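Late entry, written up from scratch paper. The run itself happened at the end of the previous shift, but nothing got recorded in the book at the time, so transcribing now.
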Amino acid sequence: MFKRSALSPEQALQKLRHYCGYQERSHGEVQEKLYSYGLRKKDVETALATLIEENYLNEERFALQFAGGHFRLKSWGRVKIRYELRQRQVSEYCIKKALAAIDEEDYEKTLGRLAEKKWESLNDETNIFSRKKKLQDYLMQKGYESDLVTATVRALSS
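Output as recorded:
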């Protein structure tokens, strides 16, 4: 097995321009990629600064895109989105801004739609308490706030 030779800082920067141009990336992902190219700490920091200056890397833009995409495509709730952004070492300011960008009306409609669909799929469940619990667990796993989940379950089961 051969060891991949380290890239020069300029070669790594060129590769990262393409990597960041393809889709939004978090600072952590890019930093990890730079280290995987065999760069030293000083070169990594310089490359990150260059990418930020050239607007290839923007944490706020990444957070907005991530939150919006995962809400629309995967129907994730704010709790799960916040958790995932924290895992990607996004600043609290950017997380708050991204979550605030999710339209409240769409959020509630999506929660209601998910709840109705899951409630219908649980028709085989004869015990109403078990059915409610399964619905609640599903919505919580999707990352919705417990007070909204409780209200939604109560409304559906009455």
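The chain has three domains: 9-53, 60-100, 104-157.
(Scratch paper discarded after transcription.)
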